[in-house]
Amino acid sequence: MDAGSHSISSEKSRAAAAPRPPLQEAVSRPYMPSLGSGCRNPSAKCYGDRFIPDRSAMDMDMAHYLLTEPKKDKENAAASPSKELYRRLLAEKLLNNRTRILAFRNKPPEPENISFADAASSNLQAKPAKQRRHIPQSAERTLDAPELVDDYYLNLLDWGSNNVLSIALGDTLYLWDASSGSTSELVTIDEDSGPITSVSWAPDGRHIAVGLNSSDVQLWDTSSNRLLRTLRGVHEARVGSLAWNNSILTTGGMDGKIVNNDVRIRDHVVQTYEGHSQEVCGLKWSGSGQQLASGGNDNLLHIWDVSMASSMPSAGRNQWLHRLEDHMAAVKALAWCPFQSNLLATGGGGSDRCIKFWNTHTGACLNSVDTGSQVCALLWNKNERELLSSHGFTQNQLTLWKYPSMVKMAELTGHTSRVLFMAQSPDGCTVASAAADETLRFWNVFGAPETPKPAAKASHTGMFNSFNHIR
Q1: Residue 141 sits in the same domain as residue 101
Q2: pLDDT tens profile 268-297
Q3: Are strands 257-262 and 269-274 parallel, antiparallel or unpaired?
Q4: Which structural domain range is residue 74 located in?
Q5: Exposure winner among 24, 276, 286, 412, fewest CB in 10 A?
Q6: CA–CA dist 163, 289 (Å, integer)
């Protein structure tokens, strides 16, 4: 059990303070440019401040002769001046005036002035090293998020493919359009059903699932602000985690059950996974849609495979592919690697504090890193081999790690309470973090991709077209 959680009832009582308008600009923080100097061009050749003699150009016999002859010159000059004159003339003819002991065979190299075109066409020039990008240490934008429920086990923030961010504040779900900066209220739930306990955008970026404290799940069309369907009787307690796999909405409840719901049909329950004895607080489908990772308050991590699932919901419990018991606290933070399909990163709660990496084909734990504090959320960089984690006590920071070395690249501070939720923009560059300090912050932590790729919009026609007659 993770000691950092708060009950829903206690969260309702702390909303008694003076109300603040949600998702409004908080105190602005000035951008601080990097004080570091620019990198030198690594492709330019550098030369030292001195020259080294070329020993292959030296005649050692001649050097010996020239070093010893001065002594003989004095002796010969004293004995016979004419003999000394004859010796000097002979030396000039035979030795060709070779009088230097140290010699340079080649002239010192001239500094090269090569044009960019010449350098690009030359195979001899090394490829310039990639410059390390600047990571801003402060948030680009800070918005107020009053009445954000301080509960480790919930999932109240998501960023859709249409660049609209959703955040649940108490009983109300707000939508913030990142393109225009406008805020709208989608729905306020009745007190008997609320507060909202989870939100998740469908792949089309238009429809959104909303999990409730009452155990119901609502499906909304955000383009028309219309409730399409309510899924009832799926769980016996609040629904704190949601995950989409095309038209399948997977729900995780406080009752420990995981249910696959096909939203296109009337009898929506198609599979049930039972492996957790306590609340399911983390759910993530792999990029291929073949494997589902689930984390619970029972400190367990399960990997479920589609090929092992029974197509009959009444067939009973579906068997997990892997049951992993290495974490020592609740497992909420889950993140599938975008560049290696069978690599999963998981984070443990306050009594564990570890980020672990798993091979989901074999179930092997590849690495474990003690972060020193509660791990609340994990996100992979889509453009680089990096992992971002958000934490609780004591620093309440976001930490950027280089993978696989797990060297810390940056620590982003600013939140004054644990950073419970993170979401990533569709282009993968910006990260939104929501914390128990009731602020929503935006960080340009992942930078811009090297080559912008137009997002391929998948067709989801027919996913919701039958809601009108099955509600």
Answers
A1: no
A2: 999 999 999 999 999 999 999 999 999 999
A3: antiparallel
A4: 55-106
A5: 24
A6: 22
